[in-house]
């Protein structure tokens, strides 16, 4: 009983979210749609409680080493749970304004957070798969949230079918690894790989990487991303672009560095190749987009390429750079989506890039916020996007992958075109119609400005406390 109570104490964040999510589901089921605001508020509170339990909880191994509570998981889950809470806050007002608010939206995010937390704390291939499927099932439903929309239904179906395909690829890789290594645990796989890094094990590892790459929408496994981003409601896309990507990146770092550290040369080549393809697809694919959410889909692809450079380094500095990049990336993404959620014309959400034309005339403050966030995404110093790229390029160069870093810089220059096009639209183009942009709700305005403010020089001060946190997180991985 002592071992069980200790294990439950270590897994308290996930247990709290799972039990709380079921309670909220019952409240919504019995109270109906009138309880939507209450369920949303309680969901945010529940995620904040889970964050507090994560930060203050003990460290160690649970359930026979299948669950790991270490500095890496603590940092990752805190970022995941806070991102999920922000996604609920952003979505609640937007859903009500567009008359599609349902209590299932926050409940599904809470249940997805259980799986994402499990991904960050996975210690073997079984817990890895359980975490992925737990969060994926909730995300499939969220993608098709607007059941009356053919585009949303198509997005949900594509995500589900391709997600099932990626799960099959991942399971095939996991079965090969288990067949050759004789164990599911990352530490035992690492011990086997140190003596027998044969082709069978490497073959299984490549399949495992392919399945995980799908979850972060890294090219060439990105085929679901543009369509799902376009079809899903904007608040749901804000969630897709943040918390699940953090969970998957931490999982990739843990699997490869904890389980295959001594086969670094083999898997680093695969990760570098995926990064280079992501640079090309994300940079050039975004040039042709007219829908803002599809544009952000290609932006996410190229940014995942940058984050994978940190993982490819296979060092403590590389993991730290990846965590730094993902943290700043999440902040910028929430800023972008807060601005999008605050914009509407004639009562309808803005979706096309051309709708931003002339934004400075009736919403100059919002235009300034979106300009700051766009320049941050380009990587203009001293904005947060610059520091994120600075760290991952530095880690890649330190590990000897400076050519991949150069390719990333070139891709960043190409991608700058579509961010600068947004700025041009807002400040120099005349609006296509005389219809003015609707006034934004107060909560959407302050969230957008908070993100824009953090992207500006405030981030220089923030790095003073952010870097020690990421160093502590990187120390939780068996690198260096």
TrEMBL record:
Keyword field: Cell membrane, Membrane, NAD, Quinone, Translocase, Transmembrane, Transmembrane helix, Transport, Ubiquinone
Segments forming domain NADH:quinone oxidoreductase/Mrp antiporter transmembrane: 122-413
EC id: 7.1.1.-
Signal peptide feature range: none
Role this protein plays: NDH-1 shuttles electrons from NADH, via FMN and iron-sulfur (Fe-S) centers, to quinones in the respiratory chain. The immediate electron acceptor for the enzyme in this species is believed to be ubiquinone. Couples the redox reaction to proton translocation (for every two electrons transferred, four hydrogen ions are translocated across the cytoplasmic membrane), and thus conserves the redox energy in a proton gradient.
Compartments where located: Cell membrane; Endomembrane system; Membrane
Catalytic reaction annotation: a quinone + NADH + 5 H(+)(in) = a quinol + NAD(+) + 4 H(+)(out)
UniProt topology in membrane: Multi-pass membrane protein
Enzyme class: translocase
Transmembrane region(s): 15-32, 44-68, 74-91, 103-120, 126-145, 157-181, 201-224, 236-257, 269-288, 295-315, 321-343, 364-387, 399-420, 446-466
Family matches, as PANTHER family: NADH DEHYDROGENASE
Protein name as it appears in the record: NADH-quinone oxidoreductase subunit N
Family stated for the protein in its record: Belongs to the complex I subunit 2 family.
Superkingdom: Bacteria
InterPro entries assigned to the protein according to its UniProt record, in alphabetical order: NADH-Q_OxRdtase_suN/2, ND/Mrp_TM
Quaternary state and interactors: NDH-1 is composed of 14 different subunits. Subunits NuoA, H, J, K, L, M, N constitute the membrane sector of the complex.
């Amino acid at each position: 009983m002592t071992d069980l109570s200790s294990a439950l104490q270590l897994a308290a964040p996930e247990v709290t979210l799972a039990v709380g999510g079921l309670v909220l589901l019952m409240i919504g089921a019995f109270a109906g749609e009138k309880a939507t605001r209450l369920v949303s508020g309680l969901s945010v509170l529940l995620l904040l409680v889970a964050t507090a339990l994560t930060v203050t909880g003990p460290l160690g191994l649970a359930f026979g080493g299948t669950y790991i509570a270490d500095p890496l998981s603590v940092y990752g889950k805190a970022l995941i749970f806070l991102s999920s809470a922000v996604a609920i806050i952003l979505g609640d007002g937007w859903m009500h304004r567009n008359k599609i608010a349902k209590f299932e939206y926050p409940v599904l995010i809470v249940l997805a957070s259980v799986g994402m937390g499990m991904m960050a704390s996975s210690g073997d291939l079984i817990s890895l798969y359980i975490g992925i499927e737990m969060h994926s099932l909730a995300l499939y439903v969220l993608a098709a949230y607007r059941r009356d929309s053919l585009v949303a239904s198509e997005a949900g179906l594509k995500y589900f079918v391709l997600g099932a395909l990626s799960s099959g690829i991942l399971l095939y890789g996991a079965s090969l690894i288990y067949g050759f290594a004789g164990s599911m645990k990352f530490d035992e796989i690492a011990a086997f790989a140190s003596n027998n890094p044969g082709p069978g094990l490497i073959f299984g590892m490549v399949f495992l990487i392919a399945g995980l790459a799908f979850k972060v929408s890294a090219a060439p496994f990105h085929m679901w991303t543009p369509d799902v981003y376009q079809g899903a409601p904007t608040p749901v896309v804000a969630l897709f672009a943040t918390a699940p990507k953090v969970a998957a990146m931490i999982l990739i770092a843990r699997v490869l560095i904890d389980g295959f550290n001594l086969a670094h040369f083999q898997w680093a080549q695969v990760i570098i190749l995926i990064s280079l393809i992501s640079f090309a697809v994300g940079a050039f694919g975004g040039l042709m987009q007219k829908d803002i959410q599809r544009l952000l889909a290609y932006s996410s692809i190229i940014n995942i390429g940058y984050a994978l450079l940190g993982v490819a380094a296979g060092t403590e500095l590389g993991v730290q750079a990846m965590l730094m990049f993902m943290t700043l990336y999440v902040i910028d993404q929430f800023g972008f989506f807060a601005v999008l959620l605050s914009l509407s014309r004639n009562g309808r959400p803005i979706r096309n890039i051309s709708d931003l034309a002339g934004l400075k005339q009736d919403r100059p403050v919002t235009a300034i916020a979106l300009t700051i966030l766009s320049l941050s995404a380009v990587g203009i110093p001293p904005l947060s996007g610059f520091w994120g790229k600075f760290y991952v390029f530095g880690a890649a160069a330190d590990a000897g992958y400076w050519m991949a870093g150069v390719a990333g810089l070139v891709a960043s220059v190409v991608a700058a075109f579509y961010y600068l096009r947004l700025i041009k639209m807002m400040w120099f183009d005349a609006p296509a119609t005389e219809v003015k942009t609707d006034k934004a709700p107060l909560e959407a305005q302050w969230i957008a400005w908070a993100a824009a403010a953090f992207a500006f020089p405030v981030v220089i001060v923030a790095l003073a406390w952010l870097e020690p946190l990421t160093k502590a997180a990187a120390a939780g991985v068996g690198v260096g």
